[in-house]
UniProtKB/TrEMBL annotation:
GO terms of biological process kind: cell wall organization; peptidoglycan-protein cross-linking; regulation of cell shape
Entry-linked InterPro entries: LD-transpeptidase, LD_TPept_cat_dom, Transpep_catalytic_dom
Protein name: L,D-transpeptidase ErfK/SrfK
Domain L,D-TPase catalytic: 108-247
Active site: H207, C223
Cell wall biogenesis/degradation recorded as keyword: yes
Stored SUPFAM superfamilies: L,D-transpeptidase catalytic domain-like
UniProt-listed PANTHER family: L,D-TRANSPEPTIDASE (PTHR30582), L,D-TRANSPEPTIDASE ERFK_SRFK-RELATED (PTHR30582:SF24)
Domain of life, per lineage: Bacteria
Gene3D superfamilies: L,D-transpeptidase catalytic domain-like (2.40.440.10)
Coiled-coil ranges from the UniProt annotation: none
Signal peptide: 1-29
């Protein structure tokens, strides 16, 4: 499962034809036969996919396994904290965190959740076919080169692009002793890979890469980097004018089969809020979701999810509902209940 250099143009044209054929065939196939990362939109609720395990082969890396299943670097590391990134070992059981709560907002065009480091694409509805969503791992901007937020559109598409490094990036490389030329032609040394889609926000792109191991990390200069095979599949289907919504949603919640789930990701910046502010924000969202419902929330589990975000959906239904006389009535009551619970770290070390 090693990633080779980007294929030549003839090979890529053939690959695009194969991918297009698979995608057309998937429209008639049952959802179980759809390509990885493609899901029917749920009729009720907003969870798609599943968490499952696979067995590593001798030559696998955690990155290889993640890419094969449409999962980026950080997500695989969080899901498998005790497994070596570079040598999981033959026969090792590896968790694939392939379940997602769909982001809030319109289900139109492309939605990029920077905190999650995932891209969601909602193809136009087709008569007689179920509505669907596709989701892909991405790399986003480093702390000093943030990916912008807001709603924009694709304004230009280029295959086999040349890269013209901005002065700021050329200066950074020169200071590091790695000077860049004024233009990098198409080919295996081009960090844009084989495709780029320019956004309406000046200076920002969705593009491929010649370093796929960085997908799922904060390593770009603000652009959105995709695996070569993923942008190969999306590129012909996203016309100029496609809406692109960029959000930073660190805490998501959704329903499935009457159970409330939450999914949390690390904050991109430490100044995005204190721990109590994050818990308060989560409580407000949970309260809004269960308003008018007799739903027993597991507040201790909610606190764990917020304090130690693992990136996988977690059910918030308490095993037994509290007695009515101790039910928390207000946000402050809930905060007091959470504050009285031992933290994840306390329980980990056997403290009370």
């Amino acid at each position: 499962m090693k990633h080779a250099s980007p294929p030549g143009r003839t090979a890529r044209v053939a690959m695009a034809m194969v991918l297009s054929g698979l995608l057309m065939a998937s429209a008639q196939a049952s959802p179980e036969d759809w390509p990885r990362g493609h899901y029917p939109l749920p009729e009720e609720g907003n969870l798609v996919g599943e968490v499952y395990t696979v067995i590593a082969d001798q030559d696998d890396t955690l990155i290889d396994i993640g890419h094969e299943h449409g999962i980026g670097y950080e997500a695989m590391v969080r899901a498998n904290p005790d497994i070596s990134i570079w040598y999981p070992g033959e026969g090792t059981e590896v968790v694939v965190p392939g379940q997602f709560i769909l982001p809030e907002g319109p289900r139109e065009g492309v939605v990029v959740n920077v905190a999650e480091m995932r891209l969601y694409y909602y193809p136009p509805s087709q008569e007689g076919e179920p509505d669907k969503v596709e989701t892909y791992p991405i790399a986003v901007g480093r702390m000093d080169w943030k990916t912008p937020l807001g709603t924009t559109r694709i304004t230009e598409k280029v295959e086999d692009p040349a890269w013209y490094p901005p002065a700021s990036i050329r200066r950074e490389h020169a200071e590091a002793g790695d000077p860049l030329p004024g233009v990098v032609p198409p080919g295996p040394d081009n960090p844009l890979g084989n495709h780029k889609m320019r956004l309406g926000i000046p200076g920002y792109l969705i593009h491929g890469t010649n370093k796929p191991e960085g997908v799922g990390m904060r390593v770009t200069h603000g652009c959105i980097r995709m695996l070569p095979e993923d942008i190969e599949a999306l590129f012909p289907r996203l016309p100029v004018g496609t809406q692109v919504t960029l959000i930073n949603e660190t805490f998501k919640l959704g329903w499935t089969d009457g159970v409330l789930h939450v999914q949390a990701y690390p904050y991109l910046d430490e100044d995005d809020g204190t721990s109590i502010e994050r818990v308060t924000h989560a409580l407000e969202k949970v309260d809004a979701a269960i308003e008018g419902l007799d739903y027993p929330v597991d507040y201790a589990r909610l606190r764990d999810v917020v304090e130690v975000p693992g990136g996988m959906p977690v059910a918030l239904q308490a095993s037994e509902a509290p007695e009515p006389d101790v039910m928390p009535e207000t946000l402050y009551d809930r905060l007091e209940l959470i504050a009285a619970e031992p933290t994840f770290y306390d329980r980990l070390h056997g403290e009370s």
